[in-house]
Specification:
disordered N terminus; Arc Repressor Mutant, subunit A; 76% helix; homotetramer; mainly alpha; DNA-binding; 2 domains; Tetracycline Repressor, domain 2
DNA sequence: CATGAATGAGGTTTCATTCAT
DNA sequence: TATGAATGAAACCTCATTCAT
């Protein structure tokens, strides 16, 4: 039993190592510039071993991006889910969620995902959509749910929680993209907090439940 | 006179043709996938002629992107400048500007610029910044100016026009990016109008001059 | 055992084949005119295989020249070493060595070595020196040793065996270069013998041990 | 008359400038590596102007080499002609000629000639011969004449002045080539004098007129 | 299953050379 | 006659991918 399991585990580990190496190299060099030899070297395996696990360089990109997208998406979901029980001070809860989302979106992984998908948008549009489903869209759906429930309970004032959610996220990612120059510059934590505060302020002005803070 | 002008004009035209062809091919295939032979063919010249005008494939990218960025930036600037004399109905003026900006940002040129710069963000960070200076940053600065003057004249309520401008643009580009899936899908004009309307509504809620509409 | 040896042997053979092909093509066309495709074809391998063994076209030149230089140098050394036991008739032994050296220096390999190193003397001066160390300098050192011992045993009359050796070789290579016009013409065996005879005559007049023959 | 001469003179000057530039660039980079653009730049003219004067890159090589060869040959001839009236001390006169020849052969022009002809020996054998006719062969013939006359007047002891001349030159150029490593190293004047002295000593031992010095 | 070796294809770039001015 | 611009050809090198071991 163990004897049969160990190689399977080893195989899975090797697959993980290859995908992680692939994402790292793709993020560093871009898809076309990255060469399979370097990915294999970074994963600590030989080049044909990569082809034993993944059929193609394109598959390598797809799988590694989807894996990274799942991780980022899970983090975003976690940040949004904290709005499930916002407590008395809803703006504070929104600010907390905003800061968490900004930290994720300002991370190197998020920028790499954006860059790699953008670069392939013409050649592999489904990949863009698949990644989007696992990150932005997933986050947006969850946030729409949260905001909808908050509206139902009277804590927010909107009849269109989808647009509200979209704008909440836009007020975060827009300024972040602007400040980071598409990931070229780092955005300091203090600046992230300022963005979050401004976003929450504007969002609350538009969707707050009547009582101005 | 004409006889002396023709060659210079011919040279300029050829340079223009090369840069236009370069942008078209880069936009279609991406930087690495694009090959100089195809650019030359699209420009109607021989391959070495391209190298007579531009030293490098990289220079070809840089020059063609900066040219496109200037064009897009000029359009954006024009849209923003319309806020100089907003008339009595400021929200309507904002809506008009918003629609114009959205139409520009939803265009193929804008998406290509975004994609091509993103893809080279690691290798050529200055290029990202140079393009940004000519498009987003320029637009943002102009909008900041406009909003600041409107605030001075009491038509808007904010002490931080830079953030207001940043958020105005974020409320446009964020949802647009979301709907278009990084340029993968077309965003219909009606949808663009809805985005603009929602953006102006939220913006006005936050920065309107007291009298709620 | 055999099964393990075969692949290594095969690799070595392929490397040998590549280097031999490289030398042949370089000798035929010169360094710049020679193209890697032709070398690969002559070696019976594909072009990238050449690059799998040698990093560069320049490395290809270097390695193939050094290999040929080692071969030529070994032949020259062998000719000189025959002076170790010259027998009673030293001029005859010198003549024998002279003829052997001339035959080597008149060979296509020697001329090719000279041409290829000369052509790269500005760009790759160390290569010139490395080849020289393995051919001329090596021969000169060995001959200096032989002549020095002969002088010690009273069979030659000189206190400067290095110069004697240098002149002995000069009396061979100088006229050979002159007659062959830098390798452009073949020098017949009879002509080689005449050169050798004249060289030995002059050498013996200058360094003979007193008794004229 | 002047009006007709001036352009002709200008044309000749331009041709000279082009040939000089060609030789300089060929000497610096080798034939294949040298590009016509650089030659034109060094000559201070435009590229097509070069082609107006010389039909080919190959003609450029040929003409510039022959010009340089004529110059070097004239210098050698001058050195040899000094043996026409050797005075009482013939070895001293030979030493003087030897030193002069060595200085010429150690010059950058001579080495460049050797390198450039060697490199093209396979492709352009006639060029090698033409250059040789204007340099080494011309010198050898003149020296043969001088030595023949000296032998007739009893100042030298040989019945084969051609071989004597060949060996005299060999005793100079052989050691020079050896020390300079095919022009890679400079050979100091003192070393040149030592080579000349040793050459004359050996030559005189073989061909001196009976009275040993 | 993992690997060293090999390959076919293709890209960027440079160069000698020639028109039109 | 001298030149700026243009071109056809070709070379080096790299890469993704596949056999034998």
């Amino acid at each position: 039993m163990r004897a049969a399991e160990v190689p399977a585990r080893g195989r899975i580990d090797k697959r993980q190592a290859i995908l992680d190496a692939a994402f790292a190299v793709f993020a560093r060099l871009g898809y076309e510039q990255a060469c399979v030899r370097e990915i294999a070297a970074e994963a600590g395996v030989a080049k044909p071993t990569v082809y034993n696990h993944m059929s193609d360089k394109e598959a390598l990109l797809r799988e590694s991006l989807l894996l990274a997208a799942d991780r980022v998406g899970a983090q975003c979901l976690d940040a949004v889910e904290r709005l499930r029980d916002p407590g008395a001070d809803l703006p504070a809860a929104l600010d907390d969620t905003a800061r968490r989302l900004l930290r994720i979106c300002a991370g190197e992984t998020s920028h790499a995902l954006r860059r790699l998908t953008s670069a392939q948008a013409n050649r592999l549009p489904e990949l863009v959509l698949d990644v989007r489903d696992r990150t932005g869209a997933r986050t947006l759906d969850a946030l729409t749910d949260r905001l909808g429930l908050l509206a139902l309970s009277g804590k927010l004032s909107t009849t269109d929680p989808a647009t509200a959610a979209e704008q909440f996220l836009a007020l975060l990612t827009g300024p972040l993209e602007n400040r980071s120059a598409q990931g070229t510059r780092k955005v300091a934590a203090a600046e992230q907090r300022a963005i979050a505060a401004a976003a929450v302020r504007t969002f609350w002005a538009a969707y707050g439940s009547g009582d101005r803070t």
